[in-house]
Amino acid sequence: MNPLDVGGGAGRNRELWVETCRAMADDRGLAIVLVSFSRLAHALSPSSETIDVERLGWVCAGLNLAGGVRRSALMLNTLQPVSLTQLDQLRQLQAPHVLGGIEHGLAAVADAMRWSRWLRRRAVAPRDPDTARESVRVDVPPGAWPEWRVLQLLAAAGIPVVPFRHARSARAAVAAARELGYPVVVKVSSADVLHKSRVGGVVLDVRNDDEVVAAVDRVLSGARQAGSALGDGILISSYLPGGTGLLLGMVADPRWGDLLMLGDGGVDAEALARTTIRLLPVGADDVAGMLADLGYAQAGCPGGRPGRPDLGAAIDVVLAFADLAAAAGNSIRSLEINPLRVSGNDVHALDGVVVWHGGDGDRS
To answer: Is 110 helix (H, G, I), strand (E, B) or coil?
Structure first.
């Protein structure tokens, strides 16, 4: 529908505002009614904290007559602050939501419509639990787990993980590295250092015994400086360079529900800020759509990003991850794999974080 512009003398016609807003809010063929304003304040005093009660009052009256406030919004043309005084005045008018700026407002509307579509689809066709992988049952103490325990949890859920060993001394770390075969990765293993690269707790491409000893000293020193209790030793894993790194995460949000996130992984994940989200549970089509959101097209499809992963292998792992989150139920707060390395049909979780309800876990 084209927008209805109201200007000139018509802008002060109460009946026009009330009846137009009532008619649009009463039309069930419209998903949402957006009423656009340049500013909340009166045009004659734009810097005032007093809103244009007259026109806004007419709008709210029309929307409330049709009971359409919950699917309506006031949209400001530009992003601008809304003071507490103005919010209080809007509440007195029983105003709908206020969206700050056309770009932000329309993006919010699009996200809300997308979310509603997910909810409807989930209600109509929930995932059949009989087709899910075998549930993983674990005894879960509160708080965060060290990485070696997280990798064990992921492996038990059918998620391929990088070969690793847990060591409690430099000598044991050298033995573990020899067993795995060089080159290896040396990491601090501590439940209170979940994002190890931020504190110098990771050394990559370690190629001999002497380098292992030096790497152990380095990661432990970095963790100490970050305030870690260092009660859990060292993790040694095979070094698997190359491939595509993905970030796979799940967060249990009290308002929105269990959310699955997929994005670009590795140490640059936050800087790139390229992620896509779905509401759990998900199916293979949902996961394929998430990969498409990130620019990874199916084999043979044009427009995909270079170095695309094998989508079939990646989808299987994401579904196993989602099943693990479902099996954990309400006991899990957050679960993360970063990175999930995908190289052809070879997929491995290289690092993992889990935080269970009942403990904060250091997210720094």
So the answer is: helix
